[in-house]
Amino acid sequence: MALLALLCHPDSCSSSQQPTLRPRLGTARKDSRPNARPLFAVLLAVFVPTSCVCGLIGCSRPQDAVPTAPSRMPTEEVVRQSLLAISNPDTPPEGLDRALDQLQAVPEVKEEASLWVKIIDDPAYGIDHRGRCLGQYFRRHVKVPISVTEFGKLPGMRKWLRKETLSYAVRDTSGFSVALAKQNGSDLLRFTPEFAQARPVNQPWLLRAIGMCLLLSRDILIGEFLDIIQGKKAKQPIQLIEFHEPRIAKIGCSQKD
Predict the structure, then answer these.
(1) Core-most of 15, 54, 133, 221, by most CB within 10 Å?
(2) 154 plus 137 within the same structural domain
């Protein structure tokens, strides 16, 4: 209203300082000019910048709004959908690959180790499905270096690691060198789960070698290693330094001695 008062016509602004002359009844006013106030109001409404009007009436600008915090629901939904696909024995290989990739993209491990153990132990799942889950279980829940004693306490290990499922590595893998391990006084063991040993060899679509090569901090007999896994006290300290999931192209570990 103050702006309207400043911009009003000079004649109309000075009218409050002069006496108002009322025309006599029956006579016409000499000043027959049209009233300019309606036209001026329209022009004012059109040409006054919006920001000025907002400043006058106190409206807020878009950049003044408080941003909302990003929701964590998309990440949780990705984890939920990935685990559903992984837990479904009918998920095709490409769907399993996609679910595992999506799960690996989430840095925080949210699922329990028992989820993987259940799939690995269940013959309702395909051999390759179980093998992929074995690799994921190691990557997500086995934190190296770890003592062999603590390694044996992880879910499933005392059941899986037996004389029938362990062997010594005899060739290099893409991750380990047998010669270098021996030179450093270490040992390489190959763990091949029982379900993978029964896998048909005439299925070329099974591209992955199922199992795990285990790099230990010192050389050890398999029998002594298994005693420690089962809870016996180690004669000398020994750790699992690294593990590696071998590929068909570079198996590098013997099935058995």
Answers:
(1) 133
(2) no
Closest among 170, 172, 171, 138 to 155, alpha carbons compared: 138
Give one DSSP letter per residue of 172-227, joined into a string: --SS--HHHHHHTT-EEEEE--HHHHTS-TT-TT--BPPSEEEEESS---HHHHHH
Q: What is the pLDDT of residue 68?
A: 35
Instruction: Identify any residues that bridge with 187 across adjacent strands, giving them in sequence order.
Output: 216
Domain with 216 in it: 143-257
Question: Is residue 243 helix, strand or coil?
Answer: strand
Evaluate if residue 187 carries a pLDDT over 90.
no
The structural domain count of the chain equals 2
Does residue 57 belong to any structural domain of this protein? no
Domain boundary residue, one of 118, 141, 164: 141
Contact present, 216 and 186 (Cβ < 8 Å): yes
Residue 71 is classified by DSSP as P
**Which distant-in-sequence residues (6+ apart) come within 8 Å of 152 by Cβ?**
158, 161, 228, 229, 230, 231
Whole-angstrom distance, CA of residue 220 vs CA of residue 203: 35
**In-domain check, residue 239:** yes
114 shares its domain with 147: no
Residue 9 within a domain? no
Q: Note the pLDDT of residue 16.
A: 45
* Closest among 99, 237, 257, 239 to 167, alpha carbons compared: 257
Claim to verify: residue 147 and residue 136 sit in the same structural domain: no
- Domain-terminating residue out of 89, 115, 141: 141
pLDDT above 80 for 6: no
Question: Does any domain span residue 87?
Answer: yes
Q: Which of 75, 84, 3, 68 is nearest to 40 (CA)?
A: 3
Name the 3-class secondary structure at 143. coil
